[in-house]
Amino acid sequence: MHLNIKWGKERTSFTIEDPSLPISVLKNYVSQWSHLPLESIKLIHSGAVLRNDNAPLASYRFRPNATIQVVGSAETIPVPPQGSAQKSETTIMTQIQEQLTLVRSSLVPSLEKFLQTLPTQSNMDIPFDSTSNSPTSPASIHKEHARLSEMLLQSLLTLDAITVDGEWVQARQERKAAVREVQGYLDQLDAAWNSRVR
């Protein structure tokens, strides 16, 4: 079975020959392909971070040609120190809402503008300028797509990094809804990008 690997503008594929192999095999492949440090790589599938490196590939139930998003940095990401103060469910829900507010106020308007200017079959009446300094030039469109995609993925990682105690039902539901909303924006961006006029 083939998986599509997506890192910014870069694309490759990965063939699962033995589904009992651990996720770490896929991470190693991505590290070799992207030249990113292994410890900085996060793999995302359907809005969820593939955390358990020892879990077999089969446990994630990938469909043929599923897309795996790669988020990583050439620099290693420092792990924030664990605070001694225990966070409350209210504090966690506030963090989730702050992240959603940030996405809604800073990314959603840019996403909506981008979707309106992206030449697709449904908006062919919008003029498309091929000059490189125009906001609708191919170079600018590619750059904005990469920026929005990366920012939405970073938001997903931020939400995923929020630790929710197993007993905090409301916080878990809020985080799940927030991830679903941000993933929806990313899906909307990818669907428009895939249907663009080239």
TrEMBL record:
Domain BAG: 143-193
Stretches assigned to the Ubiquitin-like domain: 1-71
Keywords in alphabetical order: Chaperone
PANTHER family xrefs: BAG FAMILY MOLECULAR CHAPERONE REGULATOR 1, BCL2-ASSOCIATED ATHANOGENE
Molecular function GO terms recorded: adenyl-nucleotide exchange factor activity; protein-folding chaperone binding
Record GO cellular component, one term: membrane
Record's keyword annotation contains Ion transport: no
Gene3D superfamilies in the cross-refs: BAG domain, Phosphatidylinositol 3-kinase Catalytic Subunit, Chain A, domain 1
InterPro entries membership: BAG_chaperone_regulator, BAG_dom_sf, BAG_domain, Ubiquitin-like_dom, Ubiquitin-like_domsf
GO biological process: protein stabilization
Chaperone found in the keyword field: yes
Record-given protein name: BAG domain-containing protein
Cross-referenced Pfam families: BAG, ubiquitin
Organism domain of life: Eukaryota
